[in-house]
Structure formats: C-alpha cells, structure tokens
Amino acid sequence: YMGEFAFSGMQPRVSRVAGNDLTEEMIAKLCSLYTTSFPDLVDLSPATFVEQTLGLHSIADCIFLFLEMPSQDNTLPPQVIGSAYVIPYHNCLFVSNVCIAPEFRRNGYTKLICSACEDIAREHNRSSLAGNVSAESEGLIRFYRSFGGEIVQNAISDNSTSASMVRMVYHVPNA
Fold it and tell me: Measuring CA to CA, which of 10, 99, 101, 157 is 20 to 30 A from 165?
C-alpha cells in the first residue's frame, strides 16, 4: 500500500508480516516505536514484547502491519513510523496497538493502516474491525467515529490494573 499523504515529499508504505515470520530486528523496531508512542509501557524489550503486547493471543495468529517511510535518498532501510497488529477472530478482525511515531502524527497515516486492516478483513472474510480504546482517549474515539466506528456496550470488563477500555467496532464495506 502506498500512502496518499506525503511527509516531506515521501510516501509511506504499509507492509505485512505474519507473526511467525517476525525477526528479532522487526521486534526491536516495534519495541522502539511502542516505547516512543506509548511511554507508559515500562521495560518493553524484545524479550518481553510478546507477553506485554499480545497478552493471551498467540503470535502465530497475528499479522503485523508496518508503516515504513523510505529514506530520502533510498540508500538506507525505510524507517518504521507506524504499526498495528491484527488477529482474525470470529466474524471480525481484531485490531490492536495502532500507533504512529509522534513526529509523524496528524498526516493521515493512521488511515493508511486502517485501510490495510479493511483489506485483510475482506481477505479473511471478516465483516468488521474491532479494537479496544481507552475510554479516556476522547480524541481517538472521535477519530474512529469519524469514519464509522461505534462503541459496543459492555464488551470489556474494567479491572484495577488498567484504564477503563471501550470496544469499538467498524463494519467493513463490501465484506
């Protein structure tokens, strides 16, 4: 996928990697991106990555999306500026850890990742995308609602170790 939005004249690309095909280098890039994007994640490292980010999900079930920005002269490897992972689950595609590096935000890049998620949902015959969002993230909730996402009541139970979360669902067109 090529981005329709440009940052400094360059266009990012979304690539996919099956969970079992993640390399240590890719995991290190994700850890760096997550640590920058989610400062509340403590001690995230390649050794703790699976436990801290995937929870109960098996890495074999995941498809990782990397939003990559090419170097200006194409002599260096692309920079990972965003990512997410998805898991086919029942009739939906569960989307998690959508993030864009802070310096690249507000350029439309989250929409590129969401578009790639829609394509994967169609390929896996899933009719919707679903994900958890902090109930306190009003801007993020507004963002997802702006293109058709809706909150599903009582989908997640709150516990004392995490912020209150809401489940958002988006029905994929032509799925």
Answer: 101
3-state SS class at 49: helix
* Contact (Cβ atoms closer than 8 angstroms) between residue 71 and residue 79: yes
Residue 69 contacts residue 12 (beta carbons within 8 Å): yes
pLDDT in tens, 132-143: 888 888 888 998
What string of DSSP letters covers 106-169? SSSHHHHHHHHHHHHHHHTT-SEEEEEEETT-HHHHHHHHHTT-EEETT-S---TTS--EEEEE
What's the pLDDT tens digit per position in 159-175? 444 568 888 999 998 86
Confidence (pLDDT) at 42: 61
Q: Report residue 117: phi and psi, to 5°.
A: -65, -40
Q: How far is CA 109 from CA 6, 67, 70, 83, 112, in A?
A: 9, 8, 14, 10, 5
- Which 3 state secondary structure label does DSSP give 81? strand
